[in-house]
Amino acid sequence: PAKALKQISNEYKGYEVGEVIVYQANTSINDAIEPTSYFVDLKNDKHEVLVRITQQANIEFFQQVK
To answer: Disulfide engineering: 42 pairs with which of 7, 15, 32, 61, CB 3.0-4.6 Å?
Structure first.
């Protein structure tokens, strides 16, 4: 979503967007989790991070990769 792209460009200046992973949860097992999440790999010269985009198009830091 445009909101998420804008937030990424503001919060992660200098990072390049790499892979985008779509995660489809099995809500029949756990209905408390969001059915679809997106994980975006962001890289710059020194770091690589994985962020999660929620259903509401919010960005959450997920994991430091490098």
So the answer is: 15
